[in-house]
Amino acid sequence: MYITALLVGLLGGVHCLAMCGGLAGSITMGLSAEIRSRPSRMLPYQLAYNLGRILGYGVAGALFGGLGALLVQLDALQIGQRILYGFAGVMMVLLGLYLGGWWRLLEATERWGRALWRRLEPLARPLLPVRTIPRALAVGLIWAWIPCGLVYSVLVTAIATGSPIQGAGVMLAFGLGTLPNLMGIALLAGAAARIAERAWVRQVAGILVLSFGISMLWRLIPWMAWPFDL
Q: What is Dmax (Cα atoms) for the chain?
């Protein structure tokens, strides 16, 4: 599950560039001209921002993993785990279709998350422009909660673990997978974004993530035999 989360973060990076690229770029633009003149000087700020963002994902994963543990306890243990696992597989299928541009249903989850973001976004304003590394870290922690269908789909997988520790691990692995793309857009200007905008790149990513979802659902088929014996 951790490897899948890592790969989803890496493949879903084409979506990260669209959703979070501007945020990562704003950190760069808030730095002094002297720091921006050399990528090596910008690197600590971008690393701090992304560390905060990944830690924020880990916190969310722990919370949702704890929710999954509660849901499993409310139902028969094995049945509850299978329902959550199946739901995670469906979300992966929807994510693959979303990344490939074939079906945008997952955008609805981003609309639902905007209510939460409206409460969190004002917390980031006093930290902008980013002038220090601790500020970059704090901004990353807050921006981890930006409405994003990609993040929400992996959070469902965190719920399916039924464990706060495993849920945090899933989201940390996902966050590490997104790191190359967001670091790339910050340090390589628009080159990474131009690559991600190509339809075939998004479609390849969509097909691969779609295959993860289908694989999860395929593994669920033997579990569906009554009376739900493994």
A: 67
Q: What is the 3-state secondary structure (H, E, C) of the chain?
A: CHHHHHHHHHHCHHHHHHHCHHHHHHHHHCCCHHHHCCHHHHHHHHHHHHHHHHHHHHHHHHHHHHHHHHHHHHCCHHHHHHHHHHHHHHHHHHHHHHHHCCCCCCHHHHHHHHHHHHHHHHHHHHHCCCCCHHHHHHHHHHHCCCCCHHHHHHHHHHHHHCCHHHHHHHHHHHHHHHHHHHHHHHHCCCHHHHHHCCHHHHHHHHHHHHHHHHHHHHHHHHHHCCCCCC
pLDDT at 51: 94
Q: How far apart are CA 83 and CA 89, in angstroms?
A: 10
Q: Do residues 12 and 179 make contact, with C-beta atoms less than 8 angstroms apart? A: no
- 26: which 2 tokens? 């704003």
* pLDDT for the residue numbered 227: 47
Give CA–CA dist 154/16, Å, rounded.
13
- List the chain residues with pLDDT less than 50: 226-230
Chain-centre distance of CA 136, in angstroms? 19
Answer positive or negative: Cα dihedral of 164, 170, 171, 175: positive
The pTM (predicted TM-score) of the whole model is: 0.78
Separation of alpha carbons 46 and 140, rounded Å: 9
